[in-house]
Amino acid sequence: MKHHLLPGILAMAAIVVASNILVQFLFGQWLTWGAFTYPLAFLVTDVMNWVYGRDAARRVVFAGFVVGLACSFVGTQISGEFGPLVTLRIALGSAVAFLAAQLLDIAVFDRLRDGAWWRAPMVSSLIGSTVDTALFFTIAFSASLVMLEPGNDVGWANEALPLLGVGPVVPLWISLAVADWMVKLGLALLTLVPFRIIVRSLTNRAT
Hints:
The chain has helices at residues 6-22, 34-37, 40-52, 54-76, 88-112, 119-141, 172-190, 192-206; strands at 26-27, 31-32, 79-80, 83-84, 160-162, 169-171. The chain is mainly alpha-helical. The strands form three sheets. It has a two-stranded antiparallel ribbon with strand order 1-2. Helix 3 (40-52) packs parallel to helix 5 and helix 4 (54-76) runs antiparallel to helix 5 (88-112). The longest helix has 25 residues, at 88-112. 33% of the residues are buried.
């Protein structure tokens, strides 16, 4: 393994582990604390892509994917009040969403890297975050995919409630997804500042 990838791999692993732990703790009515750490994975991917290139970013993503699988496996072996901490659908949704969204982020970033410095990280993170949220919540909680894990009762997630407590009546999981998506979009914009600082530091160090 190339030594320059190690900081990115460690950062990605730390984010994935932290998010898997913090997702168990609620923040308000529609979010968990994991919603605020997980989007940092896009920052790590974009920094590695900008400084070391597309292939390096992919290696970091695959390392994070393996760590995520390990965390999901551990979660399936730990019983909580309502069963395993991580169900098969959540594990599947997390894995598919992470890999698809991060690889899409890398592809979009690579296409836009020759533009203004902020365009590639902003657009790729916004697109990747949207795909990540849509895939995870649909796979994990949609009633239409109950065949993925027939023994897992997701009725609670499909309870009909006003969107975010004020909008049209929708399944609860859609409110959870929208809240998560809004946090991801906000952080995609906020992390442009650390992206610029980290990229400058690494670039100057390399030269």
